[in-house]
Each structure stands twice: as structure tokens, then as C-alpha cells.
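Table S2 (continued). Query chain:
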Amino acid sequence: KRAYLLFLHCCQNISLLTLLTAMFKLKRKTINNLAILAICLVGIFSPSEYLVGSDGGRKLQAISGSTRAESGLSDAEWIEFTTVVSQPGCKLENNCNQCRGICANDDHCIGTLRCLIREEKTDLVPGCIVSDDGFDGPVCYNPDSDYFPPGPPLPNPLTTSYNPMCTADAPCDVCGGMCDLGSDDQCTGDLRCSYFTNSWPTGKNNCNYNGVSSKTKGYCMPAEDFQERTSNDALPSADWDPAVPDRGELIILPVCPADGCPVCTAPMNDWKGCTSDAACAAGLSCYDHHERTDTKKEQVSGCSSNKHWKFGYCYTKDVSFQPPEIAHLMEAPSNAEVALTNVVSAPEECAIYASDPNNLVDIPFGGTSDVGLKASLFHKVTYIYVVDASKSTKTYMATLECGDANSDNAAKHVIDCEILAIQRANEAANAGGNVDLVGLIQFNNVAELLQPLTQPWARLSSDRRDPAIIDQLRTIAPREATNYQAGVEEACEMARDPLNDNYQTVVIFVSDGAPNLGTTTKDTIMNNCGNAIFQTYAVTEAADCDMIDTFNLRPGVDSPDTLSEIAAFSGGKCTKVPDVSKLPDLLVQLEKTTWDGVTVKVNGVAAQNATINYSTEPSIEAPASVTYSGSVPLGPGVHTVCLETTSSTSGILDVAETCKTVVVEAIEAVPTSQLVNEGEDARFTVSFGGREPGCDTFGDKIITVETCDGSTQITETLTGDDGSVIVTVLAVPGVKEACYKVCHAAGFGSKSCTITTVEYLEAVARQITDSGVNGDPLIMGLSGQLFKFDGRNGAWYSAVSTPSFQWNMKINNYETCPDHSNTFVAGAGFTFFKNGVTTSRIEANVVNAHNVDVGCGHDDIHNCLGFGSLEIVIDGVKHVVGGDYKTKDGFARITAFNTFYQCSRKWYDFDVRPKEDINMMNVSIRSGRALADDEPPVFDLITGLKNTMIDQEECQRWINDRKEYNDIFMQPGHYSTIIIKTADITLHLEYKQESERCNAHTIDVWVSSVSPTLLEQNWEGIIGETKDINYIPNGKDSLMIDRSAALKHRNDADYEVNSPFSTRCKGCNHK
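Corresponding output:
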């Protein structure tokens, strides 16, 4: 039995998966273990019973509609399990068992159990045994139980019955319940639905209260015994006077104002309230009963709701007493409006800095911003308060100092701080004068309009202590889940109300947790919300502006926004409030004019990496003057740096922005000829990056050139009218390859350097003959040209650009590889067009650029491309394993498989033919827009490549094996081949990875065949331009040429595109 209860405890507190894992890791898989596991599974999945919390190491079961005999318990167990007793630790959330107390609210009870408030030991509890000498506090019970176990005899016989479904069609007899208050037709004959609790004298018509009460339900009783429900469940106090007007709810304040507690309020005062009249405002007395020994609640004259037992409240029986007027500003302030200003001292317009090509330079900035008080918004703002009333806002927090703001006799709850915060915000709105309309909405599963638009100072009557909107605020009773969508849509409907004629609407949206219902409200907020601004607040330490309760979302149904997103859709912001007690002060601050800080934007985007220092920290009340300074790191190029200062009044933002143009130069040194005869001087064209029209960034340039080992240094000041200079470096005798570091000094001590090399004819020829291709990417032109193209790390470039075809390639730099052999192609994107419309897209990419051998990610998969380092995306569908694929329109065939070194393609295998013979170079003669019906089988396609392989014999044997076993697409490997074949072009891609010298990847691409139709089109791009250049190499061992002899454009940036499928650049078909 002890083991059974122990494993029931495990079953409730750990997941099934965890339990199974733990059980089957035991070294001894005995019959006993399996039996206990079976018991546990029964406990988890039983449809008729559920487990409840712990009680002294035991587990109890809820008893619903069963007798002792049906329960299977012995008489002793029956009495022990169902007798009402006090349980230590019961006031912890979700910890209190059935028939156990003291609970304070439903949250303390396990599962669906509820907390029943009892004031007498003999108050009956469904499903539990009570006794005259037993426990008299609140108890957790099963609300679905209609069975009362027999116990010791009660003072009066129990003649009430409990039926939660009294209806007009099935009315209840005398003493029967529960019926809906006000619905006498739910009772038989002339009986009336009467409010009835144990607080009223027992014995009426021999009906004895059965311990189940409700604020909206009652029991059927004779008319002479009918009792109407008052505003609370309390007995009238000894000096109760019903003639005194109702002035408001009894509430507990954290502390009272200096001039005393208002009417119907009490200070927290260590859970005592007022203890003398001195604590109360003028004209009020302290109804002080904190020394009483009984626990009955009482009504207090002129106050509604329950009086917290032993608490003293400030009140008066004077029927002529009038609460003080609600102060509010009725005339606009006399102060002249002072606009928000922002004077920027740095950077200067067209300031020049220098940075290495792959590095950043810190750009300093600074300025002064002033803000004054506002007058133009007076009586032109609407506040809509939206309050989270989900069940979690009733969470008790011992450190909270917000009192009991909703008169539920439960202080220090999150909801109390939310209510107090809205109350304080409303007071600030009245004092500030900008807000003259307010509305109130609560939300949980659904949203509810509590107060339509009204004035923030308007009261229901002159007798009321609070404005009408605060009276409604105090009615909030937390329950159920969290649906932001419902709250937002109700707020937007109010913002569109024809009565809302104000200049601006601000929604103050307060929540303690994560949404778990609803969908996005982006369109509603941006297009159908009366231009309202949402200022959202995430309260409690557990809450967050970017949180969603994903665990409780309904898959495929719920996709709610976060508080950050709701605010951003409207131009507002989300504020995290870990200390809920600070929320009232934050909402008061919202009404004031404040200076809120600086945002740095670079080229229109907020710079998250900027550092800012202030003379005074933001959120300063106006009038204020603040100086600020900082820096933002920028890379090479022309940048627009904007410094945006903001202020806010009543939640409405004001912005002052000043922008400056900043030029960051990255020096580029390109040899006028990459091949220099030995003994000749080397000449470099040195340029300095982009230029901005209107910025005089040319003129004298101080250039420093030294050899890479620092042995020789040259310093020259040269002038270039076009922004570039020519530097001549004397030859060093006997050197076959020279490395130079070229630097340029700019403003604020910044410096830009680049490394460039000069190679000599003999050295280049030997390099090609010995080892093929080393170093940065080599481009082999369509007419046999061979030249280097460095590119920018991580950038995409146009390789071929025609009206019907675009091929882009991505350049990656691998820092761990040797200099001059560390830059490779790491991605290829192919786009096909028809009549100017994109028909299909194919992309091949390195998955993890700086790691090799990443693996397939699953024990059952071994044929992932490039051993997990390569992926293909065909019309948006990703493929990571080998296969024979097609585009959606069937136009292109993509065959991908893993191979090995001997079957990879050779680098220098190109045929050099005269230009006039190019149409005969493996050119397809088909010109249609679809693959031929007789497209070759996979192995015929692969065999056709064998002449280009490194080891043809070894590769052919491997191909024959694959054909025999039909497993070409199941092969693992670090090398991969991709063949893309259309009617107009065939492309051959080879993926390889380097893991010995360094970690690197490369994707080499060849154009294997081109149709006459495609060949006749205009070709642009790095490789495309070489089709028409009049250059004929001397033979197979062609020497490298200067890129200027092959390309139309001088700068790499002229061929740079934005993405794998972008078609626009200076060197593209689409400019």
C-alpha cells in the first residue's frame, strides 16, 4: 500500500515519458516494478477518478456520489479520509486536499476543488464529514458532489437538498437548491428563490443551511422566509443604519493619505485597519473591532461589500456627509508650449572615418536635448484602461503593498495592484487636465466592457467616494485564462466610438502573464483602432513583454501577439514591471511630460549596438535639458546616422530627429596588372570606398605602403580628383611574389588597411602547373579567361545575368585558412524567368560555414549531403539528402548525390577553343521551355561526367557498383555533386570541404552546356561578361590575366546583389 501511494505521487508530479524512462533504466526489470508502473498508468489515465494533493505523505481520492461501501474503503479509512480537518501548508497554491483546510481561495485547492468559506463547525461540506467538535475554517470541497457522508448528529435535522440544476422546467421543492436569485419560476408553487447562508438564523421552515452558498444562487423557501441578498454576506453591525447612503466599497489601502483615510477605507496597519478616529479624514470615525474574538463579518453603515473581520474602517452615519469633490483641472495651464529640441554636436556632416574592409570603427556622437511642458493636449486625450482579470491575477504575493482594492477580503494580490495603479493613473489624469474621456475593459477568456466612455471625474452620485470608472474597476473578480485578442478588440471598438472626439486615444493595457488564447490583432490595431496608441505593461517577476504561454495554446487555433508586439503595432512600447508595487507610480508618470531618451538609427534602422551616456538618466519630468554622448560601430560605406530624442505626454510620443552623413572609408589597392615581369615596378590603384554627393571627401590622401613583413615602408601624399590615387612601388630584385600592406589615415585617428599581392609570370605558371587552384576564388571565363575575384565576406555577387536566367554566388572568408587561400564560394542561387516572370528558383548553400563534419542530425540518416554541411532549396522546399528532383513547373531537373575525392571534378579541365567555335562546346541544340520526354536516366547523366573526374577508372568502378545496387542516392560522403539541367543550360556543382589545413567549404560551379537561344541573349555578370570579351588564351595552361581585361566594371561592389535571387546590380542585366 505504501509503495502504491508513493508511485501515485510520482505519477502526478512527473510526466509519463520521464516515468517510463526512469523505470526502464532500472538494472532489475522485475515483475514488481512493472506492476507498479501499471498502477501508475491506471492512475494517470483513469477517466472516472482524479488524484488530489498530498496529506502527510498520503494521497486522497475525491469522492463523488459514492457511499462508504462503493468507495471500497474500510470504515476507519472512510472516516479518516472524509472528516474535515486542518492540513499544514494548505494555503500554498494547488496544495489543499478535499475535506482539508484552511484554504483562502480556490487557488489553494487541488485541481477542480473549490474553497468553501465556513464560519461554524457544523456547516456542512459536500462529500465531507463535519462534527460539532471539529474544524470550523474554510475547506476544499468537490463542487460536483451532492453526497453528504453520515457523521455525528447535527443540532437541527438536515432537510435542504442540493441540486445545481434547478430550472423553470424542473423546479425545486421547499429547501431545494440551487436556484438563480430573482428566478422564482425555478421553485414550485409560491415558493421564492431566497438568498440563504449560515449567516442568517437557522431553522426557517425547518431548513438548515447545507454549506453551499453563492452570490447569484439561492434556495426555494416560503414567501414569509424570503431573504433578499444584500451587497455582502455580512451581518449588519450593531450600529447599522440602512438610511445612510452607500458611499462605496470597503477597501484596504496600503497607507492612508496624510489628511486621513477616506470614507469606507482602512489602512493596512499590520492587518488591523484603523484603531482610532485619528486615522480617519475629517468628519469620519473609526469603526474599530480589531479586538473582537469572533470571526463574523459585519456590514458598516454607508459602506458596501464585506467587512474584513477584526479590521477597523473609517465611516460615518451622518446622512448629510458628502465625500470631497474629485479634483480635476478645468482650464488649460498658462505655461507656453516649449517644443522638444535636439542639437547634435557630433558627428559632423560628411565626417570621414577609415576602417579595414572587414572591421568596424566606432563613430562618436553627442548632443543636447531640451523639453518643456505641454499645453496643446488639454482635454484632447482619451484613456482606455484594459485590465487583465485572468485567474493568475489573484496570486498572493507577501511583498505586495497594494491593500485590498476590489473588496474581496484578500489583500496583497496582483489584481489589487492593477486596480490601485489604474486608480492612481485616473487621479493623475484628472490633475493633469489632458484626459477628459476614460473607459474601462476587463479580459480573461473573453473581454467585458465595464465602463463606457465617461469623464474621469464623473461620479454615479454626489454620495460616492470614487469616480464611476473606479467604482466599476472594483468589481473585477479574476477567473479563467488570458486572451489578449479579446481585450484589444474591445478597446479598439471603444476607440472608434463616435463619442470619442479627442485628438488622441491611449490604451493602457495591463497584464500579469502570457496569452494562451486568441490570434494576432496586428491588422485591427494598425487599420481599425482609431489610431490608438497601446502602452502595455508586463507585471510580476514572472511576466515578460515577449512571453506567450505556448504550453496551453491550442495547436492550429491560437497564435496570440505578445505585449511588445501589441505596443509596437501602434507606436507604443511595452514596460516590464517585475515589482508589481511599482506599477501605480509608473502609470502616474505616464500622464506627465517626460524626456525619454535617445535612439540611434543607422540608415533607417535602430542600432542595437550603440552605447549612450546621459547627464541625467531618461524619464525626466519636464522642463528638462539633457546632454548625451556615445558611439556606434559602423563598417565601410556611406551612412546616414540619425539621433532621435523622444518625449511623451499622457502616453503620446513626441520625436525630434537630427541626421548626419558619415563616410567610412575602406581602402582598396588593386594592382594595375596582377602579372608583372620580374624587375618591373608594381603600380596600385588605391581607392577609398563610396562617396556621397555633396560631401567633399576627395583631396589630399596620405598613403602608407609597407611590405607585409614590415621591412620596407613608403609614405606618399597624393591627390586623385576622382577619389583614387596611383601608388608606385619599386621592384625588389629576386622576388617572385610580393605582399604589400597599403594603409590610409582618416579622421579621429581612424585607419584603413588592406593586403595586396603582386605575382610574376613565372611564379604564376608554376603555381597552376603544380597544384591547380589556391587562394581566393579563380574565375574561368566563357572564352577561357582566368582571373581572381576577391569579393566581400558573406556577400552575394552576380555570376551570370541574362533576361531568362540569373546565377548568383556567395563569397565566404575562412579565417583559419592560410592567407591568400581563405576565400571560397559558399552558396549558389539560380533563378529562371519566362517573359520577365520568375518561374523557378534553386539554391545550394553551405549550412554551417565555419564547421565541418556537422553530421546528419539523426542516427537513421546517413545520406545527408556533404555529411550535413550542404542543403538544396527548390522553389522554397529544402532538401538535405541525395535524390533526383524537379522544380514545380518541371522545367529544371536537379540530381544530387554524395561522392568522394576521386569522383570529384578537376579544376583545370577546361577546353580552350577559338571564340567562333563556342557554340560547339557541349551546347544543347534544344530550345524549348521544358525537359525532353526522353531525358537520360540518372546513371547515364552521371556517367557523362566521368571525363571530368580526377580518377576516371576508380570513379567508373564506383558508378558501376552504385548502378548494380541502385543506391547512388543513399551514399554518405563529404563530397557532393549536383547537376542542374534544363532545356537551355546545364550546370555542374561540386561541393568539397577542407578539414586538414583549416575548416572551410567550397561550391564550384561550371556551365556545361548552353542552348543557342540562351547564348544569343545579352549576358552580364562576372562570368557572363566574359562571353563577348575578345580574348583568346594561348592554350590549356592559360595564365591569369588582370580582371580589368575580362570585366567591364572595376569594383567588386558593381556586381554585388542583395540575395541569392536578386537581379539588380550595376553589372547585372537589371540595373
